Amino acid sequence: MPVALVTGGSAGLGRALTHALAADGWRVVVDGRDASRLAEAADRPGVVAVAGDVTNEWHRAALLEAVEREGRLDLLVHNASALGPTPLPRLDAATGDDLWRVWSTNVGAPLALTSDLLPALVAARGIVLSVSSDAAVEHYPGWGLYGASKAGLDHLVLTFGAENPQIAAYAVDPGDMRTQMHQDAFPGEDISDRPLPESVVPHLLALVAARLPSGRYRAADIAVPTTVGG
Asked: Of 68, 81, 114, 229, whose CB count within 10 A is highest?
């Protein structure tokens, strides 16, 4: 039975992906900072919840122990993310503390967690998938801290792939989604026209199943196989 670790799985895309993987027969270790919300999201067979913050060294050790109990790791998904201060500030209004909070979650924690779990990933010829953003390659007012962190995450994950050819490494831009983080980025605006995170999941599953070459992808560009009679 394949095993995945999905960070930030108590809501949004992480929750939707966790549920889909479990429904497909995966064992999924999932984390989130809100213990009660995480417990609700993980209340189904095949899902193991480990509450905590990925920036915390002790929590990452607990995730490592949970994976070791499963005996293997086939997929590591870096989904946990920090948007930064809102309303989103111009770069000249951002502080060093703002930068540190965003980068410790979006770059530092994935670096440490991937390094810790690399032996298990290599042994299973596994996959590392980071949830990226178009802000990693485009330049939008207010999105400087977040975009720079996602660009950094892309670079780290794809370098892990270059250094370890036994694994596949993907940075995936999911596109706009109707999530709390997206709402936080646009306070007071109606984002009901954005697609739900569940619409992105089939593209991520297709990428994992096809094991395409390591690289950066837009979820919308990943073909989803049609079912027989579909």
From this structure: 81
Residue 170 is which amino acid?
Y
Q: Express each pLDDT in 73-89 by its tens digit.
A: 999 999 999 988 888 88
Q: How far apart, in Å, are the Cα atoms of 49 and each of 62, 77, 135?
A: 11, 15, 30
Using CA atoms, how far residue 20 sits from 16, 114, 194, in Å, is: 6, 23, 20
Q: Which of 140, 146, 170, 217 is catalytic?
A: 146
Rounded Cα gap, residues 38 and 133, in angstroms: 24
What pLDDT does 193 receive?
Answer: 67
Asked if residue 191 lies in contact with residue 144, where contact means CB atoms within 8 angstroms, the answer is no
Q: Tell me the C-alpha distance between 184 and 164, whole Å.
A: 37
Q: Is the pLDDT of residue 168 over 80?
A: yes
- Whether 146 sits among the annotated catalytic residues: the reply is yes
Q: Please give the domain boundaries of the chain with CATH numbers for all domains.
A: 3-221 (3.40.50.720)
pLDDT of residue 205: 97
Of 99, 96, 67, nearest to 83 by C-alpha is: 99
CA angle 143–147–148, rounded 5-degree value: 120
Both tokens of 92, joined, read 């000249």
Q: Decide if pLDDT at 107 tops 50.
A: yes
Query: Token match 């990943």: residue?
Result: 222
Confidence of residue 196 (pLDDT cuts 50, 70, 90): confident
**pLDDT band at 190; cut points 50, 70, 90:** low
- Biggest CA pair distance of the chain: 55
Say which DSSP state 90 is in: P
pLDDT on residue 20: 97
